[in-house]
Amino acid sequence: MHRIAKKFVVAMLSAGMIVSGVGLSTEAGQTYDDSNVGITNKVEAYMAANSTDTNELIVGDVTEVAEPEEEEVKEEAPAPAEEKEDVKASLTDAVEYEQFQDRAVITADTKVNIRAEESTEAEVIGAIERGGVCLVDEIGDEWTKIESGSCEGYISNEFLVYGDEAGKWCDENGIGRRATVNTATLKVRADMDENSDCLTLIPEGEDYYVCNINDGWTEIAVDDDIRGFVKSEYVDVTYDNPRAVSVEEQAEADRIAKEEADRAWLEYLAQQEALQQAQAAEAEQTVTEAPAATETQVAETQPVEQTTEAQPVAEETTVTETPAAEPVAETPVEEAPAPEPEPAPTAAPAGSTGVDLVNYAMQFVGNPYVWGGTSLTNGADCSGFVQSVYAAYGYSLPRVAASQAGCGVEVSLSDLQPGDLLFYSYDGSIGHVAIYAGGGTVVHASNSRDGIKTSSYNYRTPVKACRIIGQ
Question: How much is the pTM?
Answer without folding.
Answer: 0.56
